């Protein structure tokens, strides 16, 4: 009997499609239309703000074509939450002008096809992987303007039966499918949810993008993958565009939505998070029961060595108040020593750092491809490869304006070749001086001085390892990673006379002040 992949479920999903009775709407008295708009707007607003539940997300879309006029999508922790949301709409005056031609019920799902370690022992899995998996099980509604929804199943025919294939064959096809999806990193974000036992197909696939042609392109390209060409069966497709609740009246009046009047609102959701806070930077597209996670831009565990995120110079992936206070105290102590411990780019940004033992040229080629897609998003600040001076490993550094964007990017970057660890998850206390920009004429001097300081570090109690890394595209852009047994060991070095002398010397050879970022 073929092996079934393990699955883990998260939030439940309702796609609630509505058609508007336009004749009844036109014939209704003005006061009835105003009441319907007011109650409909309040319903949509309250559900986008999650006033009906402790967790979740919601959004409304205008739908093109004859199959529906409106689509309301809800993510909620329980089926009961979805049932209540559906019935609460029926209690509005707007509902009297609509019918529900179809709907779709499903539950978000991750699978063991490509993440066996997670299912064997979730608690001991890499923290980046756990964060990634939780994000798949409890997704935020993407901010991209356009949406496409369709249901699909895996074929069970006499000649081609997905469920008769071996686990290995299925996993291999899904991995190939993921490679196609990676080409759309930065262009497409997806939510795939299982509907086995819930609805007429096996999965519901929801694609989001700022450009509707990207949706067409990814579906087209993936049709040629064996997993789709032989084993995919698809239902009807629905396409629409998101608009804010306050634009409901404009929509019913026949105006283009989102309107410019509510343009700022159109970029907000889930309690007003700015556009970009939830960019997934293209989680490539994939689907199949227990197979969907083979996509998501990660082709595999989507964050297995995950790159966590660091807010400015705060600990990676940990923004709890206690850690923030600790980080502030470190910066204050360094300031007393006349050491700048500011943020990586002098602003509030988030960094994710992963280490790879792959060939640097091969690694850079892969990163450059992802970076081209990342650049589609305004929240992307910088992604670069830094090579260690001794050539033992390279660091991939990716900087974003928002934490969720950095964490999503980490899912893609974690699937780069040779990834062995991520900054912030090593044992002990980590600190790294990011973006030491050296004056070109002093490049050799800086490298030589680092060698001297490195010898001193090797003799210091509590020191584990320190690497000098250079941007493969700009040798004067330096990245230093240093690992210590404990915070106090690192601080002892910063208080040393040798370090003070090095700082003074650095004022003459650096193009700007070094910025020290601390990792828990």
TrEMBL record:
Gly residues bias spans: 295-310
For this protein, the record's PANTHER family field holds: COPROHEME DECARBOXYLASE, HEME-DEPENDENT PEROXIDASE YWFI-RELATED
* Organism of this sequence: Halobellus rarus
Q: What protein does this entry describe? A: Heme-binding protein
Q: Which Pfam families match?
A: ABM, Chlor_dismutase
Q: Where is this region: Disordered?
A: 260-327
Q: Where is the composition biased (Basic and acidic residues)?
A: 274-294
Domain ABM stretches? 430-518
What is this organism's lineage?
Answer: Archaea, Methanobacteriati, Methanobacteriota, Stenosarchaea group, Halobacteria
The question of whether Iron is a record keyword is answered with yes
Superkingdom of the source species: Archaea
Q: Which InterPro entries match?
A: ABM_dom, ChdC/CLD, Dimeric_a/b-barrel
Alphabetized GO MF terms: metal ion binding
Keywords per UniProt: Heme, Iron, Metal-binding
């Amino acid at each position: 009997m073929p092996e079934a992949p393990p699955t883990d479920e998260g939030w439940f999903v309702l796609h609630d499609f509505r058609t508007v009775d336009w004749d009844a709407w036109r014939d209704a008295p003005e006061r009835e239309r105003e009441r319907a708009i007011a109650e409909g707007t309040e319903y949509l607003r309250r559900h986008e703000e999650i006033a009906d539940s402790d967790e979740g997300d919601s959004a409304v879309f205008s739908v093109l074509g004859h199959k529906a006029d409106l689509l309301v999508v809800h993510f909620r922790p329980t089926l009961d939450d979805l049932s209540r949301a559906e019935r609460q709409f029926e209690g509005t005056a707007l509902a009297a002008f609509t019918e529900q031609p179809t709907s779709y019920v499903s539950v978000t799902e991750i699978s063991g096809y490509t993440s066996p370690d997670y299912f064997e022992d979730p608690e001991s899995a890499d923290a980046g992987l756990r964060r990634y998996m939780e994000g798949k099980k409890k997704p935020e509604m993407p901010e991209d303007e356009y949406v496409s929804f369709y249901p699909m199943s895996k074929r069970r025919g006499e000649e081609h039966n997905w469920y008769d294939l071996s686990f290995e064959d299925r996993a291999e096809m899904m991995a190939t499918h993921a490679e196609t999806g990676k080409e759309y990193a930065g262009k497409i974000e997806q939510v795939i949810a299982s509907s086995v036992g819930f609805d007429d197909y096996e999965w519901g696939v929801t694609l989001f993008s700022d450009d509707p042609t990207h949706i067409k392109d990814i579906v087209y390209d993936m049709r040629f993958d064996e997993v789709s060409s032989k084993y995919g069966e698809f239902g009807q497709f629905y396409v629409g565009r998101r608009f804010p609740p306050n634009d409901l009246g404009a929509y019913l009046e026949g105006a283009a939505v989102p309107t410019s009047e509510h343009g700022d609102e159109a970029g907000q959701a889930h309690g007003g998070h700015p556009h970009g806070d939830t960019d997934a930077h293209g989680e490539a597209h994939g689907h199949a029961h227990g197979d969907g996670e083979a996509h998501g831009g990660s082709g595999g565990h989507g964050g297995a060595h995950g790159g966590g995120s660091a807010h400015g110079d705060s600990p990676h992936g940990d923004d709890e108040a206690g850690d923030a206070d600790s980080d502030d105290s470190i910066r204050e102590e360094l300031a007393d020593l006349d050491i700048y411990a500011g943020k990586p780019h002098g602003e509030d940004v988030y960094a994710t750092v992963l280490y790879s033992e792959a060939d640097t040229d091969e690694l850079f080629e892969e990163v450059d491809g992802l970076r081209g897609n990342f650049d589609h998003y305004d929240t992307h600040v910088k992604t670069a490869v830094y090579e260690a001076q001794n050539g033992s490993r390279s660091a991939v550094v990716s900087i974003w304006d928002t934490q969720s964007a950095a964490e999503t990017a980490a899912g893609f970057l974690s699937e780069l070749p040779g990834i062995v660890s991520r900054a912030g998850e090593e044992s002990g206390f980590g600190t790294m001086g990011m973006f030491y920009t050296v004056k070109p004429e002093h490049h050799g001097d800086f490298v030589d001085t680092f060698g001297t300081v490195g010898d001193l570090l090797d003799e210091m109690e509590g020191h584990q390892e320190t690497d000098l890394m250079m941007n493969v595209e700009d040798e004067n852009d330096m990245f230093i990673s240093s690992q210590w047994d404990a915070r106090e060991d690192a601080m002892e070095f910063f208080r040393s006379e040798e370090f003070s002398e090095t700082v003074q010397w650095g004022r003459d050879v650096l193009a700007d002040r070094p910025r020290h970022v601390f990792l828990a």
